[in-house]
Amino acid sequence: xxxxxxxxxxxxxxxxxxxxxxAASRSTYCKYDVSWYRxxxxxxxxxxxxxxxxxxxxxxxxxxxxxxxxxxxxKNTVYLQMNSLKPEDTAVYYCKVLRxxxxxxxxxxxxxxxxxxxxx
Length: 120
Prior knowledge:
The protein has strands spanning 4-7, 10-13, 18-24, 31-39, 46-51, 57-59, 67-72, 77-82, 91-100, 107-110, 114-119. By secondary structure, the chain is mainly beta. The strands form two sheets. Strands 2, 4, 5, 6, 9, 10 and 11 form a seven-stranded mixed β-sheet that branches. The protein has a four-stranded antiparallel β-sheet with strand order 1-3-8-7, with no helix packed on it. The protein is elongated and about 50 Å long. Strand 4 and strand 5 form a beta hairpin. Helices cover 0% and strands 54% of the residues.
């Protein structure tokens, strides 16, 4: 059973930085797209950033100039470097791992989330 574990959340002041990590086991028979989503109280879960199996990255407009997604394939880990954090970034951040391709059944796995709190 796949397990997705996020880490790196915490509390920072506006303008600070955090680096989130998403670790998940992978099979050589599958392809993986990894994305970060966030959900603030009273709001819908929204896409933040993603990196697909060929390394292509994408960002929500609200974070494009401030966040950077990257991966370390040797560690099966995807990172989200968050700089110039704003109070509006406060949310629970979730990692989504989408497995597909080859003999792999298309399946999405979600982590439990990590809290990011940005104070003004």
